[in-house]
Design goal:
The protein is an alpha/beta fold. The chain folds into four domains: 10-113, Rossmann fold (3-Layer(aba) Sandwich); 120-183, no CATH class; 196-349, Rossmann fold (3-Layer(aba) Sandwich), CATH 3.40.50.300; 366-422, Alpha-Beta Plaits (2-Layer Sandwich). It has 15 helices and 13 strands. It has helices at residues 24-41, 64-77, 90-100, 107-118, 122-136, 159-162, 168-194, 212-220, 263-268, 270-278, 293-306, 329-336, 351-365, 378-387, 408-422, and strands spanning 10-18, 43-52, 81-84, 103-105, 200-206, 237-244, 247-253, 281-287, 314-319, 341-342, 366-374, 389-396, 399-407. α3 links the parallel β3 and β4. α1 runs parallel beside α4 (107-118). It is elongated. The termini are far apart. Residues 1-6 and 142-150 have low confidence and may be disordered.
Length: 429
């Protein structure tokens, strides 16, 4: 007889530590998000434990008494998995598993497991494997004795299962191969982006599960995968979106951000996140129905600053207004963010106003110019295709007439470069 019923979720216990720097409320919010991550990974949260500490314990991260309390809960409720909301060292994991006699994961390992389960494309799988190996490398101590039980389930997908007995040198070699592979993929992305230069490009950024994929589907009529879970989308997806009667733009959906996102994961997804740095403008999508809006906005901005994309022209887009119980939030955030727009991607509310806001942003941040350039200056013409959006091209005798849209902040410099090149004062290298 074959059992076709859904497999039971892996039961888990969550552990958070509050310090003077974080505070109890921030720890509670972070632990709530960890619960969502656990649910996304396929686990059922059956208990949560928090502790206030001045400093972390080197051997077990939390105090001896709290470890004993966890051990009692694990045995009483038969919990096979304990997840900590902070990163643990290999020694801490080994010591905790020795006392608790169950599998122990930290937040980074859980996020990596989710990415491993959701990676679909060759690029995403390569990026996730690289991040996993970089996470494993500094934890290769004492021959992985703390994983000798070969646990299954959450936290053991991908290379985590097969690299336990692999030595440091082999992992470093594999990391080198993966980096080379991602560099090749990155060069392919550069070529793809060059082919899109004739369109203005925007990138959807925001906290995970803010509704970016839903909005892109609505705008483009496409079918990007959507799920009400964290990190539903890992691969950047670019679609052509009609903005006005005479203008189309390209919009790219990117991986969502989250607090305590592992740095090596950001580094591994560099080629994907370059879509943000290469975009002409950003659409910062915010879930207005969330209880942690300001915190999420701050985390996204900090991540953008790390990626050197924080100073790009940005339109704040507050999504999910249909879920608001208190509509008083809208004028409150409209005052704090004067140029923001408020929409519902699910119900298609105020999408026309959203497109008009993008048009105003482009009008404020970009200017159109007509430039005449001698055909002999091919390097200059190629450069203009890279720095601006060429709207129209006409050939007249030995000249090229370009109608081009340029970033307002760069327009004066570029026009001066064209004049100097035409007059023989400056030659583009």
């Amino acid at each position: 007889m074959i059992d076709l019923s859904p497999s039971r979720k892996e039961r888990c216990l969550l552990v958070g530590v509050s310090t003077r720097l974080t505070g109890k409320s921030q720890t509670a919010e972070s632990l709530e998000e960890l619960a969502l991550l656990a649910d996304t990974a396929g686990a059922e949260v059956v208990a949560r434990v928090t502790q206030d500490r001045e400093h972390f314990e080197a051997a077990t991260f939390i105090g001896k008494g709290k470890v004993e309390e966890l051990g009692y809960l694990v045995r009483e409720k038969k919990i096979p998995l304990v997840i900590f909301d902070d990163d643990l060292s290999a020694v801490q994991v080994r010591n905790l598993e020795g006392v608790l006699e169950c599998k122990v994961l930290d937040r980074s390992a859980l996020i990596l497991d989710i990415f491993a389960a959701r990676a679909k494309s060759n690029e995403a799988k390569t990026q996730v494997e690289l991040a996993q190996l970089q996470y494993l490398l500094p934890r290769l101590t004492r021959q992985w004795t703390h994983l000798s039980k070969q646990f299954g389930g959450i936290g053991t997908k991908g290379p985590g299962e097969t690299q336990i007995e692999t030595d440091r040198r082999m992992i470093k070699t594999r990391i080198g191969h993966l980096k080379e592979k991602l560099e090749r993929i990155g060069r392919q992305r550069v070529t793809q982006r060059k082919g899109r230069r004739k369109h203005t490009r925007g990138a959807l950024v925001g906290y995970t599960n803010a509704g970016k994929s839903t909005l892109l589907n609505l705008l483009s009529g496409s079918d990007v995968f959507v799920e009400n879970r964290l990190f539903a989308t890992l691969d950047p997806t670019t679609r052509l979106v009609p903005l006005t009667a005479g203008m189309d733009i390209l919009i790219t959906d990117t991986v969502g951000f989250i607090r305590k996102l592992p740095h090596h994961l950001i580094a591994s997804f560099k080629s994907s996140l370059e879509e943000i740095t290469e975009a002409d403008f950003l659409l910062h999508l915010v879930d207005i129905s969330s209880d942690n809006i300001e915190d999420q906005i701050r985390i996204v901005q900090e991540t953008l600053d790390d990626l050197h994309g924080g100073e790009k022209p940005t339109l704040m887009v507050f999504n999910k207004i249909d879920r608001l119980g208190d509509r008083g939030k809208i004028p409150e955030f409209a005052k704090a963010y004067p140029h923001a727009v408020f929409i519902s991607a699910t119900r298609g509310i105020n999408i026309l106003g959203f497109k008009e806001s993008i048009s105003r942003l482009l009008s404020d941040e970009f200017v159109e110019n007509n430039l005449r350039i001698s055909q002999q200056h091919q390097k200059l013409i190629s450069h203009l295709y890279e720095v601006g959006e060429v709207l129209d091209v006409q050939y007249e005798n030995n000249s090229v007439l370009l109608k081009i849209r340029l970033p307002r902040k760069d327009a004066e410099r570029i026009i001066r470069l064209v004049k100097e090149t035409e007059n023989g004062i400056h030659e583009l290298l």
